Amino acid sequence: MKRFAPGRCVDAHRAGAALFPGAHWRHAGTMTAIDWTRAAAPSLAEFESLADAAFAALPTRFRKLCDGVVMRIEDFPDDETLDDMNCESEFDLLGLFRGRGLAQGEAFAHTGQQPNMVFLYRRPILDYWADHEETLGAIVRHVLVHEIGHHFGLSDDDMERIEAEAD
Fold first, then answer.
1. CATH code for the structural domain at 42-166
2. Environment class of residue 154 by beta-carbon count within 10 Å: exposed (0-12), middle (13-18) or buried (19+)?
3. How far apart are CA 99 and CA 97, in angstroms?
4. What is the 3-state secondary structure (H, E, C) of the chain?
5. How do the pLDDT tens digits run along the chain, 167 residues long?
6. How many CB atoms lie within 10 A of CB 26?
7. Any bridge partners for residue 118, and if so which?
């Protein structure tokens, strides 16, 4: 489990190299391309690095409010979560916020209560990425902002503005 740490930054090139070890990088101006013949899908640890980079790029005032929220990267949601969310497939859910958010006035855990958590599900996100034109980083950022947004009780418009500020 990883707790969000306000102010943490990740160098984009190092994050990319960590995500695709063994991949050969070609630089063309400001663009970096991956030699896909040598690249593999990111592991859980590499995906966590991608999520850390996405979090680090969010506006500082937003990150500071996330103190104490735990981020977990898992391949798939567990069966109980799939049942609770009425999912037809393990690929239906990209992320989930679990806990009591600021909107409920109880953002901090009581004794014996689990901390507020954001789950990102690697395999469903990778599947979504394969079928869409967006970059993997943009998708991870979108899911992360959306799930953290539930913690704050934000509207879709608010979440869109936060994502736009991260660009």
1. 3.30.2010.20
2. buried
3. 7
4. CEECCCCCCCCHHHHHHHHCCCCCEEEECCEEEECCCCCCCCCHHHHHHHHHHHHHCCCHHHHHCCCCCEEEEECCCCHHHHHHCCCCCCCCCCEEEECCCHHHCCCCCCCCCCCCEEEEEHHHHHHHHHCCCCCHHHHHHHHHHHHHHHHHCCCHHHHHHHHHHHC
5. 555 544 333 334 444 444 444 444 444 445 567 788 888 999 999 999 999 999 999 888 888 878 888 999 999 999 999 999 999 999 999 999 998 766 555 545 455 677 889 999 999 999 999 999 999 999 999 999 999 887 788 888 888 888 888 76
6. 9
7. 71, 97
51: which 2 tokens? 């999520």
Spatial CB neighbours of 13, under 8 Å, sequence gap ≥ 6: 32
One-letter identity of residue 15: A
Residue boundaries of the structural domains of the chain: 42-166
Residue holding tokens 């690697």? 122
